[in-house]
Amino acid sequence: MTFTLSALDTVIVPLVVLIDQLSEKASISSNRARTIDANPNRSSSVSRRITPVIIAALLLSAPAYAQHGGESPARMTSPPREATQFNFLIGQWDLEVRPAPTGLAQKIHGVPKLLGTWKAWRALDGFGIEDELRITDRSGNPMALSHAVRIYDANAKSWKTSSLDVYRGVFTSAIAQMRGMDMMASSRGTDAEGKPYVSRGRYSEITPRSFRFVQERSTDNGKTWSTNLTIEATRSSSSTPN
User: Fold this and answer.
1) What pLDDT does 40 receive?
2) In sequence order, which residues have a C-beta less than 8 Å from that of residue 157 and are 6 or more positions away?
3) Which has the least CB within 10 A, 24, 76, 119, 209?
4) Nearest CA to 202 among 3, 9, 61?
């Protein structure tokens, strides 16, 4: 099965890699599910261990101004107003996840329903947020786990996101901007067969109690698009994870 939200697009929801993962696993029976410890009580300790790694990935992906003779971006010690744009994600969410069908059987009989949780909290002295996206099948078997750091870049006027697909040990990055009432994200990558793709995700219908995330992918450099993931999120708690 395959999955990407990642994206909560995310993502990614950096969710492109996760979507592929979910699509693969959707066709595998639950008795062959991976025996991975999905105990949510491990979230805080895992977060503490992997956050420095994700921040390092963000720094490494930043433009090397000095190497190209450009001026360094202005230094800011207080977060700009735009750093609150992702605040709608803060808290805890229950998810209904619908990856696109793959193969004739899934197109005829439908894709198995997937569930999940999304937890987010303020981080980086108010310049950004961290979040954890966890996807399971209906029996609770783990399908995907993503941990992301999102930071607002005032110089680029956009969000930079670095996400770790925990089960596969793969990092992805994305850029996002608030457009009207929706948050739009985009990224590039390669699928499981090594084919390049462009991904775009939209967080929309945002309210204090719910939001929707839809991710699309193009394999012809943006000429045509197909939806490969839809996530319906319902708030389960306004409190942030410990």
Assistant:
1) 40
2) 82, 177
3) 209
4) 9
Two tokens, residue 232: 């319906």
Quote the Cα angle for 25-14-159, to 5°: 160
Whole-number Å distance between alpha carbons of 148 and 88: 15
At 71, which helix (H) or strand (E)? Answer: none
The answer to whether the beta carbons of residues 131 and 13 sit under 8 Å apart is no
Q: 182: burial class by Cβ within 10 Å (0-12, 13-18, 19+)?
A: middle
Query: Which parts of the chain register pLDDT below 70?
Result: 1-73, 101, 103-110, 242
Q: Are 16 and 197 in contact (CB under 8 A)?
A: yes
Q: Tell me how crowded residue 162 is: count the other CB atoms within 10 A of its CB.
A: 23
Strands 158-165 and 170-179: antiparallel
CA distances from 4 to 110, 159, 189, 220 (A): 18, 18, 11, 19
Residues 172-231 pLDDT 10s: 899 999 999 999 999 988 777 888 899 999 999 999 999 999 999 999 988 999 988 899
Cα–Cα distance measured from residue 143 to residue 114, given in angstroms and rounded to the nearest whole number? 9
pLDDT at 15: 53
Q: What is the pLDDT of residue 20?
A: 52
Answer whether 129's CB lies under 8 Å from 89's CB: yes
Planar angle of CA 218, 192, 212, nearest 5 degrees = 50
Query: Which are the contacts of 78, defined by CB distance < 8 A and separation ≥ 6?
Result: 126
